[in-house]
Amino acid sequence: MGIAFPKAYKEVATQYQGMTPHPAVFNVGRGTNVVNVLLTIIEDPQWRTYSVMRAYDAVKPHVPNGVYPFASTPGGEYLCFDYRGTPEQPKVTLVTVEMFIYPVADSFNDFMARLYDGDAPPA
Hints:
The protein has 123 residues and is α+β, with helices and mostly antiparallel strands. It has 3 helices and 7 strands. Pfam families: SMI1_KNR4 (PF09346).
């Protein structure tokens, strides 16, 4: 893919790839959604189903250059890093199954801080 994922993401993904974060609910302009699984960054055939590369291959023909998946939702959507405006600190976006792109957070750290359990969003 030829990009450098944010350091904070690499730390989280290395420890929790293939898992669901807790909390996992996030707000997106059109409502709420849930992180299903953090995609894997390791090259291991047993993890191919949840790999960043497999997800990237699926969305690449449908999204602008500079948009790279890092997590999925239960509905088959992808949380992506959007490097188009700020390559040194990509924004987090949601790419829907219809391939629409919605802004979610200004950075991965901001995204993680905004996750909540579902009862009430963080203050």
